[in-house]
Amino acid sequence: MAANTDHAPQPRAKRDMFSSRNIFILAAIGSAVGLGNIWRFPYVAYDNGGGAFIIPYLIALLCAGLPLLLFDYAIGHRYGGSAPLSFARVQKWMESVGWWQVLVCVIIGIYYAVIVAWALMYTIFSFNKAWESNAEGPGAFLFGDFLQLGDVGVSFDFVPGVLIPHALVWVAVFVIIALGVKRGIAAANIVFLPLLMIMFLALVVQSLFLPGAADGLNALFTPDWGALANPGVWAAAVGQIFFSLSIGFGIMVTYSSYLKRRSDLAGSGAVVGFANSSFEILAGIGVFAALGFMANAAGTGVEDVAGAGIGLAFVAFPTIISQAPFGELIGVLFFGSLLFAGLTSMISIIEVVVAGVRDKLNLTRLQATIAVVVPMAIISLLLFPTASGLYVLDVLDEFVNKFGILAGALVSVIGVAWVARRIPTLSRHLTSVSSIPAGRWWQILISVVVPLALTGILVSEVVTKISEPYGGGDYPTWFLGVFGWGMSALLVVLGIVLAMLPWPKAIRTTFDEQAADDEIRAVMEGWTDDKSPADPDSNPKYDLKETDA
């Protein structure tokens, strides 16, 4: 018997989308697995209780990370747009939150590119251990020969050795984004993510056979159970999960808007969350096995060589590569892993901006890519491949990355949960399309636990920055004011201003929740085929009055 089509929703127009749920999962993992997984997690775990840190880490994943990941999925999948458009469809005022997240991605994108460029060059340097040309060691090579670091400030003394690979990174990102979701983003992750996994697994295996590797692993995994009584350890666990899952700044909202309606959101979130955490633990094993070798060779303790960030990647690892058997191979594997991890993450960051601009101006993908990537690349190339680029990068990363993402996520959760009161609606949406019900447990976690956790971390960061200026006095007050506090505040203001600009007539910010429920039910019961994600602009059924008036 034919289905009664009188009450079935109208079919939707085609929209960019992932060809399958598995491709979406691959892209989401590619976004989540970034530089922080490799150079941040191992030291955070080591510095916060070693093996005991796994307990707060897993609790943070289950109680804060995965609930917020599903929150982003539900927003993007249900409301079917970029971050600004999706939040505008929740309630009109929340469009500014979406633009805030887009602008955070703008800042992160312009400095992330130069780190990817460094990884590219160090992959090449690994073949002949180029840093050995400086007798003072890898640190002197990095800051002197390679970056040609000058005084703190804003300099336009360009460094050709950084400028050229930096430009190549932007060209690659432009091409991938311009090709679209299927031929660009999905295809890049299909290639880069397996390469990353293969190279990093090979690095871990090789590191485990280095002399002293066991000492490094003992230093990492020996539990300090007393650390569990320290609130700072729990805050560090929540912070690590939060920053490593690509949540809270529009990436997963954007990616989930490219999903078909018949998609297992909760199941996908679980796969992405545990895959990301598994890679972090694998990174910890590989990094600390290598640091154990470094300590063994230097005749010191692991605590004397352990570190995080740029120092770990571009100073400690070159030292290891120079001393280890088959060091050239270790170098290519390590820096190649950084390169591919950085590229997959950067693609997702830039896509957030392209999607927002494309929706707001009703542009084609190529037009939006040109409008976004070209000016971002120009700003990036003016600021970072210079003698002062590292200083600007460091302050922007510390302030905008932390405050922008933390505060933006906190406002979005409070706005959706307590102002718009859409959490029951999102819970119903998640449950209807997922293999794992997002019931009362998810509503409590996302409405209460996540806001409290984010507030705690945010307050702690603000108090720390106020009580002790970042950099311990190395940065002038004006420098921190402009690129730190000032930039963080400017993004909020710009987000509000962008939200005031009108939408094109072809784009509707109106949304009927009941019609959306009807459509989901129709798709899941087989009344209509499932060819595109939510797109109220293409369906007259959504041309209704604003529901949040």
From TrEMBL:
Sequence segments annotated as region (Disordered): 525-549
Superkingdom to which the source organism belongs: Bacteria
Gene Ontology cellular component list: membrane
Keyword Coiled coil found: no
Membrane association type: Multi-pass membrane protein
Transmembrane segments: 22-41, 53-76, 97-125, 158-179, 191-213, 233-258, 270-295, 332-357, 369-393, 399-420, 441-459, 479-501
Keyword annotations from UniProtKB, A to Z: Membrane, Symport, Transmembrane, Transmembrane helix, Transport
InterPro entries to which the protein is assigned, alphabetical: Na/ntran_symport, SNS_sf
GO molecular function terms noted in the UniProt entry: symporter activity
Major location category of this protein: membrane
Pfam families, alphabetized: SNF
Compartment annotation: Membrane
CDD domains the record matches: SLC6sbd_u1
Protein family per UniProt: Belongs to the sodium:neurotransmitter symporter (SNF) (TC 2.A.22) family.
PANTHER family in alphabetical order: TRANSPORTER
NCBIfam families hit by this protein: Na_transp
UniProt protein name: Transporter
Organism: Gulosibacter macacae
